[in-house]
Amino acid sequence: MGAGTRALREAMIDQGKCLLRLTIDSWGPIATGGYPAHLAEEP
Predict the structure, then answer these.
(1) Measured between alpha carbons, how far is 18 from 26 in angstroms, rounded to an integer?
(2) Which residues in the chain belong to E strands, given as ranges?
(3) What is the pLDDT of residues 1-43, one digit of tens each?
(4) Contact 29/35 with Cβ under 8 angstroms?
(5) pTM flag (> 0.90)
């Protein structure tokens, strides 16, 4: 870990923040634009 990365990490900890790393391994119907018709509200 470089000095800049270390300083950034310490600053985030001091501020009560965190960094999340996510790995997407699949897509669901919401992510691809679909929504189940039986769950949609009637107007």
Answers:
(1) 24
(2) none
(3) 688 888 988 999 999 998 888 898 877 666 666 666 777 776 6
(4) yes
(5) no
